[in-house]
């Protein structure tokens, strides 16, 4: 099994969620994160401009079986794409095992 | 003939009775007017009270999340300490009964009680206690002004001691110079509701305090000035609207009776100056920063309010608009100016209360029915005298505290936030 | 005999003196009453001012986090622009001095100054400036009503231009028809404190604006209507309570003096209608949605307040309860209705101010001391005339702005939030 | 001779005319005073209304995020239900017209309408409707007091039924004992503005409710008392300041006219007691917990306000300071005391309203112009009688509800939060 | 070493924390996440019901030695269990190395 | 490629960010987490002291190539160090692959 971790723009989330739903992937976990990268946003406050360094982003964590990784990754890639700096990253990790708390499903069954 | 006269000859008791009734009416008329006047000053006092909520909300909104409990705590204590000390000594210091017009200082007696007839029309347009409570609500505001400027880094205890003495001693003595019929009053200095006596006094105190206190960690770095944005702008917005509302009591009540002409004019000049302050700040902040900065517009409104305070009863509405526009336009420059001097003032108290307070006081010499070179001179003398005295008092007191119990929290506490360090509480869960 | 008469024959000076004193008393009595009346209208004006804070808080609470700075900014500017333009032209447009009863429009002069005697009892129950400031506080509310409906997607500049012209031109001309002794007044149309003249005018403006502006992105999708919940319901709750408070000034002050009978009746009808509005919305929203929807109850309170506004002085308390119940009960239906029409109104301004404003105006023909078919007809004419005129004005103005500088922010800015796009600020840190 | 007399012999019509004018003046003078008095009570009523916002904000700030919509919903409904039921029966229950002084209860008629002359000076210092609306604003407060104590776990429906009956039946009957010229009044019991009749009544209701309801899950664990911090202290702070503001109407309006001496004294005692309450709580909470607990200082202010309420018109300012200090100092002990008893009260309503209400009522027998053993005895009787009656009523009503529709939400709903369970809404997005 | 990532219900957190403390595991890192899965919650707002898609959940990250994994997993499983849809998942990953910032502890010592 | 996950104190973030910038590492993802560990903070509320158990912390996630790991880890370790209990942990994981959404960069190029 693999874990797919995608850092995306806030504004692309709806598109990504819908695209994932279209390939019948409806289970994932979302976190609000702050991205430090090439893209910058300057803000102003009381006459001093300041750079909050980060841009609010979302991280989508998906646990999935090895065979589905490519499909999911390309779906996210397409839906999260704007072409401007700051579109984000997708990273893939190996997962040792997965369990479902509600019953005794393990690994592939638990996803 | 006699008969003719006879039918005219009514009982003199009737006329006597009439005379008596009419003279009772004279008293009753005075008492009715007194009742209305007194009521207005009491309602105005309650409105000035709301300004303390306004200040608390504004300051709480403009600090970081980790210092919110602290700023609320300070403001709740200031109003309490302010009222109590003003009751104990402040009022007597400010309005000495052994009135020696033109004086500088008069030793106060402790505590208050109304003299014979002081609760009736003999005292003026309101009772003794009305007088006290209206003035007491004013007194605490000047300490509240300081609280915003020193936020996020001052030690709670030092601040409470400073505020207590500032309200109990400094504010009333300065106030006595003008409103207690002291030397500034004799000079001809004009300050209707306290652009100088309240707002600048608070502003000078704030200035002295932030000079000694130094800026917040991370504000002025080698890489330049770092903005430290307030954590909750809706809270700040609520604060400004409540301050504006309270100002109708602050200025309107300073008429000191319910005279329809005067109070309604003051309402109009106050409103228009505040509105113009918003527009002034809107324009300059856009020109300077190419951005619609809400915090500047909010401060612009306050600037307009402070600016009109010295001459709210003397200005035509047109002049009020001009005064407000200029006050609002000053704000963004002033904020940047203090930042350049590395004087860190999280809420802009020095810009709003000190700078616009000075502007408003000078404006009385430039605009309105009292304008003239002589008056402008008097205004300048008043500004300078109050400035020197207040700054010196505040500086020495803060300096003393700095050398003894210390005025600044440790870096670690500042990083962690005063809510943790002084209260072990969190503002939000 | 002569002797007898002699002791009756007191000095005529006494009677002369008495006459003089008594006639002074007559003046003083009028002035005392004037003083009280004037004071009430000023206090009421300050309370109406608080409604602007109420609107700001309500609207800020009902939008998303990313548009909060923007909504606060707009509301702070509206009150400023509203006061200034009403001073410059609005008041003169609405209350033409060359009063030609039954007219439609009268060219205004620029700026205001009281005429001879206008600051005294000669003007009426209050001074000229009191009149102005009370009316000025009303004027800005109708622009604030629009601001809620167009939130989260309108361009700041276009909105400010729209509001400025709406308050300066449209509101006062319509208001003149009734309150400036124009044709609607001559007709017999009744609108005590502005269910139609203030609230519906705002509501029609809002309707025109949201038709041209279109809904927020993602509100009406193929998959159905998507709720976009407000970000801070406590803020919205504070707003509603403050509006309710301010309404005592809005309706109570519209008595235009401190007549005890009238003002106290208005306080009671206003209170009971608001309370009944809450209950009405509570019941229908539960029946419709099987849920206790706080946002509906809050809007229900406002609906009850708007509903009673046209006839607050004519209704018995029982009738006020009925009017409020119906107004509150309408709200959930109306909100759903506008949603079905894909007219996106984040705060429910059209339901509260337009629909309940119409209902309240009609109610004057159905309930209360003026009820009757003829009156109902007049009310309908007034509603229609005001509706057509305001909607047309607002629609054309918005349309012009749309075709020139544009009224809607880019999709990207809308997604990012107006706080970033227009202010580069964040409401919360 | 005759000639001499002749020039004295003016027309008797003049004197007759004078007499008439003077007698009109007498009426007008009374009416002017009436106008001012009535205006003050109406303004005071609006200020008491703001207390409902104060309570809402305080309670919303002191609960957890997941129960905020629920507490706002309850408070919005309470004021609505309170006003409507007080209109329907409460006022008649509390002020029976078939006044039988010294009574315990009098069957009310349904609905209200002013009798002949009740809208004029014949009724007293204000109109019938003014009387009603001022009293109605008071009525709802006592239910609001309960709402804080039972927060985060009570079923909405049960609470609304409880509140409705509490306000409609219990509060006015108890109130009648004193303010409706009932037996407590005949006894000589003193309660100026309701330390007992409003605050303790609310407090006893709260106590009965939390006994039957039990503590929030996870509050009293085997590992000891777990603090459940409020989610938004700025909101709580706003609430306390607004309550303080409203108290000027609550106490100041309870003078029941605008008598300058009385109202200004009440303003001063109220202010100083609140201030001293803050200081009292500041000191004891620091001594007890070695911490500057904002929530305690806020409750201390409220304690000082509740404490002075029974005798605000009888105390000298010095005595007001003492009463406030003690009230404030009681708060931290009381909060800990109720926690020891495992009586869970999220906002401290029992400490503030019940304990300080008792203290304030007793204080009338200890301090001020009515002090004395006999008075102290009467005060104790009043406290006990009101306590027994209210507690019994509230306990039985809650018990009945518990046995029928249930008063507590399921554990799952409590964990999830009432906002989800009862409203399917979120306070913040 | 392994990293255990458990997505659990908000309402089970106290139970999980106490159960972990009972097996003497007191060190972990918690994040607030949004879970998209089978379980749905419908909310209502101004007459439109809406599905916020996600349910607020907590993620517990535990770094631990290989030998303790089973014990910890079964403890969490028991404590987080309600049996209803939405109880969550536990995933286990391999960790290359762990360091303690405060001193030079590495790997097993640093946990 | 590796993923470095560092749990640090809030108060050390500025130092860590600047130190990373000095070794020219400007891209990372930050999350706000709650740390349960040795360090405790007691809070008081209405007379009851309570232990919120956790301390607010930050997690820095860095995707990087194998060769840079040591440099980055030692930089973080130095900048996040105070010496007192609660300084935090750094964990290193293996990453299967990384993609940039904006273009077709993969793995080392995408970092
Ligand atoms: N090496 C990295 N490690 C962890 N997160 C990264 C890394 N590089 C980029 N990110 C995340 O991806 C987001 C987007 O990256 P950025 O450099 O702004 O644009 P782009 O993805 O177009 O190259 C960043 O805000 C950050 O959250
Ligand atoms: N494939 C997955 N990848 C990541 N997170 C998941 C995945 N499946 C479930 N989750 C997380 O676990 C939570 C619970 O899952 P859910 O399907 O609702 O119930 P259950 O765990 O009982 O099957 C989800 O809200 C989500 O946060
Ligand atoms: N085994 C662990 N698994 C996950 N996170 C941990 C673990 N141990 C510590 N942490 C995280 O590191 C933080 C600091 O740990 P702590 O024990 O307080 O101090 P120190 O790092 O100095 O030993 C904790 O708050 C927690 O977030």
Please bin the fraction of helical residues of chain A.
10-25%
The percentage of residues in β strands of chain B lies in: under 5%
Oligomeric category:
heterohexamer
The number of helical elements of chain B comes to: 15
Number of helices of chain A: 2
* Rounded Rg of chain A: 17 Å
Count all strands of chain A and give the number: 7
Q: What's the β-strand tally of chain B?
A: 2
According to CATH, what is the class of chain A? Alpha Beta
Characterize the overall form of chain A.
elongated
Averaged pLDDT of chain B, please?
94
Report the average pLDDT across residues of chain A. 86
Fold and architecture overview:
The complex is a heterohexamer, with 3 copies of chain A (111 residues) and 3 copies of chain B (429 residues). Chain A has one domain (2-40, 51-110): Alpha-Beta Plaits (2-Layer Sandwich), CATH 3.30.70. Chain A is built from 2 helices and 7 strands; from the N terminus they run βαββββαββ. Chain A has helices spanning 13-22, 69-80, and strands spanning 2-9, 28-36, 43-45, 48-50, 55-64, 89-94, 97-100. The model of chain B has no long low-confidence stretch (mean pLDDT 94). Chain B is mainly α. Chain B contains 15 helices and 2 strands. The N and C termini of chain B lie far apart (99 Å). In chain B, β1 and β2 (224-225) form a beta hairpin. The interface between B and C is large, with 69 and 73 residues. β7 of chain E pairs antiparallel with β6 (89-94) of chain F. Bound molecules: adenosine-5'-diphosphate (ADP) (3 copies). One adenosine-5'-diphosphate sits between chains F (7, 35-39, 55, 57, 85-89) and E (27-29, 61-64, 100, 102, 111).
């Amino acid at each position: 099994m693999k874990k797919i971790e995608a850092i995306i723009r806030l504004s692309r989330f709806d598109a990504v969620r819908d695209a994932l739903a279209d390939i019948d992937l409806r289970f994932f976990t979302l976190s609000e994160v702050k991205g430090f990268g090439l893209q910058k946003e300057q803000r102003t406050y009381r006459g001093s401009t300041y750079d909050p360094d980060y841009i609010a982003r979302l991280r989508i964590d998906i646990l999935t079986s090895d065979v589905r990784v490519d499909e999911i990754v390309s779906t996210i890639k397409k839906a999260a794409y704007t072409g401007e700096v700051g579109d984000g990253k997708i990273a893939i990790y190996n997962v040792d095992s997965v369990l479902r708390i509600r019953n005794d499903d393990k690994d592939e069954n638990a996803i | 003939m006699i008969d003719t006269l006879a039918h005219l000859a009514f009982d003199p008791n009737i006329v006597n009775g009439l005379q008596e009734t009419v003279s009772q009416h004279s008293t009753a008329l005075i008492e009715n007017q007194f009742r209305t006047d007194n009521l207005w000053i009491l309602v105005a006092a309650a409105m000035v009270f709301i300004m303390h909520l306004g200040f608390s909300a504004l300051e709480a909104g403009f600090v970081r999340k980790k210092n919110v409990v602290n700023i609320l705590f300070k403001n709740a204590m200031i109003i309490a300490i302010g009222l109590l000390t003003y009751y104990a000594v402040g009022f007597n210091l400010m309005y000495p009964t052994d009135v020696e017009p033109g004086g500088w200082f008069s030793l106060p007696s402790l505590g208050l009680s109304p003299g014979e007839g002081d609760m009736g029309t003999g005292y003026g347009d309101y009772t003794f206690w009305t007088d006290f409570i209206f003035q007491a609500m004013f007194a605490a505001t000047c300490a509240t002004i300081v609280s915003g400027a020193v936020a996020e880094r001052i030690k709670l205890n030092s601040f409470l001691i400073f505020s207590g003495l500032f309200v109990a001693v400094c504010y009333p003595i300065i106030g006595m110079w003008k409103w207690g019929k002291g030397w500034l009053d004799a000079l001809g200095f004009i300050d209707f509701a306290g652009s100088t006596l309240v707002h600048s006094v608070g502003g000078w105190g704030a200035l002295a305090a932030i000079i000694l206190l130094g800026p917040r960690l991370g504000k002025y770095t080698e890489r330049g000035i770092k903005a430290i944005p307030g954590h909750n702008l809706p809270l700040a917005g609520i604060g400004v609207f409540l301050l504006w509302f309270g100002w109708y009591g602050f200025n309107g009540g300073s008429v000191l009776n319910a005279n329809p002409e005067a109070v309604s004019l003051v309402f109009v000049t106050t409103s228009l100056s505040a509105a113009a302050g918003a527009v002034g700040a809107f324009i300059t902040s856009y020109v300077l920063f190419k951005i619609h900065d809400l915090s500047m517009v909010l401060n612009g409104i306050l600037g307009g309010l402070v600016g009109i305070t010295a001459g709210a009863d003397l200005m035509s509405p047109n002049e009020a608009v001009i005064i407000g526009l200029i006050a609002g336009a000053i704000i963004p420059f002033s904020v940047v100016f203090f930042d350049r001097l590395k004087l860190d003032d999280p809420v802009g108290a020095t810009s709003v209360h000190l700078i616009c307070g000075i502007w408003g006081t000078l404006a009385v010499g430039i605009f309105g029915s009292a304008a003239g070179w002589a008056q402008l001179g008097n205004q300048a003398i008043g500004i300078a005298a109050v400035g020197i005295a207040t700054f010196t008092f505040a500086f020495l007191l803060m300096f003393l505290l700095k050398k003894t119990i210390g005025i600044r929290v440790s870096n670690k506490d500042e990083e962690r936030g005063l809510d943790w360090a002084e209260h072990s509480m969190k503002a939000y869960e």
